[in-house]
Amino acid sequence: MILENQTSVNEFILLGFSNPQRLQKFLLSLFLLAYVLTISGNVTIMTIVQLHQQLQTPMYLFLSHLSLIEIGHMTNTIPKMLFDFLKDRKVISLVGCFTQLYFNLFLGLTENFLLVLMAYDRFLAICNPMNYTTVMNNRVCKALILGCWVGAFLAPLPPTILLATLDFCGPNIINHFFCDLAPVLILPCGKKSFIEFFFFVFTSSMVLGCFFLIIISYVNIIVAILKMPSSGGRHKAFSTCTAHLSVVLIYYGSVIYMYVRPSVKDIRDSDKVVSVFYCVVTPFLNPFIYSLRNTKVHEAFRSLIVRRRI
Q1: Spatial distance between the Cα atoms of 142 and 16, rounded to a whole number of angstroms
Q2: Which of 61, 38, 296, 299 is nearest to 307 (CA)?
């Protein structure tokens, strides 16, 4: 009620992907397939980690929580987008828009924090293996994971509430397929310089801070790998790190492009494509890159299949 009394707009119109009807059906099928495969892959990883005692280690606990984040991230945006493909008029309520925006920030920050922990975990395992079990035991791991969720839950609340209390008097058109930060920041009436600067500082510090910590960890990991005496060990470690780092670079390349901006005047179609990378592509790739290529996960999955057959 308070929100509605402060604004003259009670819903937003999402333009989504402005393509011919035939292409809309293709995109609907493509995103639906990606959503189903992503949910299936991440649920499988969470189930395997939960059921197999040998996977109750920090590395796999981090992976299971990353899977949970990816499920939440995609579910926050993709189902609404799929339904909108079937509609001529794509609308979202004011409350629904800011709820979607908040959960996008919350889950995005949780993923950023968790990726830092995962990079630090690999750094300890490779660069300081003798003290790894002492520094990164399950108790510490669970406390760090809890800190990720709580910190990411609280951090976006003040800026989201601040944005929601502004006056939205029109236009109410969002040139995007969901309520992302950049297209929503364009809509408030009056001067927006303060709120734009506030969000620029907030998102830049969070995203770039996490990104630099991850890069520092991987630089140290690569240096440690180069010092390994075994060529086979170096090749295996490089293969794993390259796969992990490639996903991190795809994710942060798109996130930095969308969120580290001093001001936004309009949203281009290219921005929507970039958003697909961190909303769809990286959640789809993460189960395959981080877990399904892992030997222990393969063995645990096969034992689970055998157990069900028996």
Answers
A1: 39
A2: 299
User: How are beta strands 91-93 and 173-174 bridged, if at all?
Assistant: unpaired
What pLDDT does residue 304 have? 66
pLDDT digits (tens, 9 = 90+) for 220-268: 988 888 887 777 667 777 766 777 788 888 889 989 988 887 766 667 7
Listed in sequence order, the residues at least 6 apart from 136 whose beta carbon sits closer than 8 Å to its beta carbon are 58, 121, 124, 125
Render pLDDT for 71-128 as a digit per residue (tens, 0 to 9). Answer: 999 999 999 999 988 887 889 999 999 999 999 999 999 999 999 999 999 889 888 8
Residue 216 phi, psi dihedral angles, 5° rounding = -60, -45
Contact assessment for residue 213 and residue 192, using Cβ atoms and an 8 Å cutoff: no
Question: How far is residue 291's CA from residue 288's CA, in Å, rounded to a whole number?
Answer: 6
Give the Cβ contact number of residue 18 at 10 Å: 10
Which of 274, 268, 225 is CA-nearest to residue 252?
274
Q: Report long-range pairs for 193-202 (Cβ below 8 Å, ≥24 apart).
A: 193/263, 195/162, 195/163, 195/166, 196/262, 196/263, 196/264, 197/262, 198/159, 198/162, 199/159, 199/163, 200/260, 200/261, 200/262, 200/263, 202/155, 202/159
Please tell me the distance from the alpha carbon of residue 117 to that of residue 192, in angstroms, as a whole number. 35
Q: What is the mean pLDDT of the chain?
A: 85
